[in-house]
């Protein structure tokens, strides 16, 4: 479990800002996560445990590189549930169990283009001083799924206090998905996160159980960040 080297994305299909990010992470037995992964991916585990993360944030200024951002369409809350994997070539990346978004066009486009498991949800993100409240509830799903999170952000982590796990959980430059039955990777570029201390004030969620995971045990490992600008690369089929 080492943070992968930064990936250069020369040709971007999408440019985005990820703002007001909160990282919540729990550890799960690898044998619990492994059956939920597509063929070709294995959990990036250590001592038989793998991390699962819930990341609520504000998607902002989302656009193709040749078009301007549109005010309503390009800004909306998003929350993803992900884990950390190794591809067939040993490359590190993430795999999404779900991605909740508040804009139906974004959901339809991501599902059609990359087969990412986006869900259309009612979502809000409100900030009052150092406290941010995230809420989400999926639309039109029999099982439903949702969350409510209140988190207080604190001072910036001194670089000397950030360890290997902190970098690993926040520094990932590749996602994996399955498109037309074929394992596919997409590289993502972003500068290093500016990480802050954070504390959960209140949390209710059933995104993990909706994904087929048991409810996490214990308090999560928490980070927050003002955000980063990202470049999303073109998909590449893994042969």
TrEMBL record:
Q: Mind telling me which InterPro entries this protein's record contains?
A: ADC_dom_sf, DUF2071
Task: Tell me where on the tree of life, at the top rank, the source sits.
Answer: Bacteria
Q: Pfam families of this UniProt entry?
A: DUF2071 (PF09844)
Kindly list any coiled-coil regions of this protein: none
Identification of the protein by name: DUF2071 domain-containing protein
Organism for this UniProt entry: Actinoplanes campanulatus
The taxonomic lineage of its organism, from the top, reads: Bacteria, Bacillati, Actinomycetota, Actinomycetes, Micromonosporales
């Amino acid at each position: 479990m080492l943070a992968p080297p930064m990936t250069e994305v020369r040709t971007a299909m999408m440019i985005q800002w990820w703002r007001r990010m909160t990282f919540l992470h729990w550890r799960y037995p690898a044998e619990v996560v492994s059956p939920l992964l597509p063929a070709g991916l294995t959990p990036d585990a250590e001592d038989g445990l793998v991390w699962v993360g819930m990341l609520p944030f504000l998607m902002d200024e989302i656009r193709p590189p040749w078009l301007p951002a549109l005010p309503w369409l390009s800004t909306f809350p998003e929350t993803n549930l992900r884990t950390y994997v190794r591809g067939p070539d040993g490359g590190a990346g993430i795999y999404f169990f779900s991605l909740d978004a508040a804009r139906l066009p974004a959901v339809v486009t991501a599902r059609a283009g990359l087969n990412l498991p986006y869900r259309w949800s009612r979502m809000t993100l409100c900030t009052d001083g150092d406290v941010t409240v995230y809420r989400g509830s999926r639309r039109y799903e029999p099982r439903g799924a949702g969350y409510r999170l209140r988190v207080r952000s604190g001072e910036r982590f001194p670089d000397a206090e950030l360890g290997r796990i902190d970098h690993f959980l926040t520094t990932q430059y590749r996602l994996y998905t399955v498109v037309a039955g074929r394992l596919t990777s997409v590289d993502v570029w972003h500068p290093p996160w500016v990480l802050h201390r954070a504390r959960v004030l209140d949390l209710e969620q059933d995104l993990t159980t909706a994904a087929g995971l048991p409810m996490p045990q214990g308090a999560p490992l928490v980070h927050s960040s003002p955000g980063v600008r990202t470049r999303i690369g073109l998909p590449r089929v893994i042969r």
